[in-house]
Design brief:
Structural class of chain A: mainly alpha
Strand order of the largest sheet of chain A: 1-2
Shape of chain A: elongated
Strand content of chain A: 5-15%
Distance between the termini of chain A: 25 Å
Number of domains of chain A: 2
Oligomer: homodimer
CATH topology of the largest domain in chain A: Arc Repressor Mutant, subunit A
Helix content of chain A: 55-70%
Chain lengths: ~120, ~120
DNA sequence: CTTAGTGCACTATATACATAATACACTAAT
DNA sequence: ATTAGTGTATTATGTATATAGTGCACTAAG
């Protein structure tokens, strides 16, 4: 994973894990890698990895049991609402970016369709 | 302007100025505020303001003349291509966010409509 | 020449981030 | 009891960011 120097690593990895959770790639109740293993997997420091799990627990996405590890929550409703809010965030950020560039939502759809068409033609 | 604690202030203000340039709010050749004034306008430190203008000059968006100030480039083509790349960046970031959540642009529109409907029912 | 506005350079401080290294405590399995 | 795997805590170092304050040099205008 290549990191954006403009955002803390722990934020970026936490977002990646949340993505894997809401897509079902990391199912409810499944065990996450140990802190040291997560650090190895992402090429980061174990301290940073620990911070990531602390953040996921703070958000109610994971539960941590000392000596056992960190697990994805089994609360399906929580995961569903997390996915919804992540989609909403992406959408709002996109529209805010375009608004700052003086582009309306309607114009944004034109750009979006143009982009999808060019992808279809690949 | 409220700043995102996850990104450097100088990046955020530089982006805001670039937005104003590509929308014509800051026309080609126009004079930008002095470093100290920019700092006052955004509630930031003059050193940070200076760094912002250094970045804009590095990107070829502005030119700085010692003792006179910083001015928007008069190269219309440069401004046009900047706008295009900013739109493309916003679009690609949006689609990358959605891809990470396992959904296509088309599905995102469904979510958006669902969102709008639930807002209508409030 | 003097002045105001400006860019630029420098030192200093505080905070967050990320790293490194070490140690301790808990749990499950042997 | 021992072991491996785990979370947790601590101290330390280096870098980037942002702040604060000061001073100097250049430019245009009076």
């Amino acid at each position: 994973m290549d990191f954006d120097p403009m955002k803390p690593i722990w934020v970026q990895v936490a977002n990646r894990l949340k993505q894997q959770i809401v897509t079902g790639d990391l199912p409810p109740g499944s065990k996450l890698p140990g802190g040291r293993d997560l650090a190895l997997a992402y090429g980061i420091n174990p301290n940073t990895a620990a911070r990531i799990y602390q953040e996921l627990e703070r958000e109610g996405v994971c539960t941590t049991r000392r000596g056992m590890g960190t697990y994805v929550t089994e609360d399906d409703e929580r995961i569903r609402s997390l996915k919804e809010s992540m989609i909403r965030d992406a959408l709002e950020r996109f529209l805010a970016d375009l608004a700052g560039l003086g582009i309306s939502g309607k114009e944004a759809l034109i750009w979006l369709k143009k982009e999808e068409e060019s992808n279809d033609h690949q």
